[in-house]
Amino acid sequence: MLKRNRFSSVASLLLCVLPAVAADSVLAVDRGLPQSNLNNASGSARSNVRWGGDNQGFIGDDFTIGAPGERWVIDSIRAWAVPGYAEVSAARLSDFYQDVRLYLGASSSDVTPVATAQLADGTDEVSNPNIRISEATGNGALLYDDFGTQLRIWQIDFTNLNVPVRGGSKTRFGVWGMGRPIPGQDGKTHMWFNHGSNAALSGTRQDGADGVMLIFDGAGRADGTLRAEVKDWDKPSDINVQVFAHRAGAPATGPVRSAQ
To answer: Is 200 a member of any domain?
Structure first.
């Protein structure tokens, strides 16, 4: 059963290192990390928040590239994770998680993994060279304030995806990693947390933000929606994401495969 996780604060500045993309690739969806109203010091105007589920499911969202009739190819997707709890922070993403996966799917559908990588425990090694992990807070982003505990933010770039999508149609996505066992807590594993923010308070472009997040079970099956202001927070939220893509030929006149 997916748990609507308690939120934590997330601070961040947009990183400038771009993933490897096609020569004509552009930042087609810019819903990056917030730069304003960060952490508890902002009070009720706080913009940053993190969302997670237990290891039976995860929180996702959607985005739209281009206009109807266009064909696009997704080259890279960037997202952010915020692991940790009170008094327990991660020196590496691999300290908390065994792997990381990017899920994609067409509008109103389930999602399936399109990129996966194993994380070597206690190292920075990633089994898939098309997935790059870096510490956002080591490159200028503020630490995430989780009820007084300062946590690192990790940037994950999924590159060389080559996923065709139809312009003007929503694509669902999710980023999730299986947690490692928590020492001293029999049967419990670390929860995956995705970075999110409130669009109006973020101080950055928040393309496609609509305040509606998506819930998926462990197999990627759609399991409903999550509105933060109704369930767990005091304002709407979306999952932060950046999508790099390029136009694919002339306007579409026939069937075009959506992300799957």
So the answer is: yes
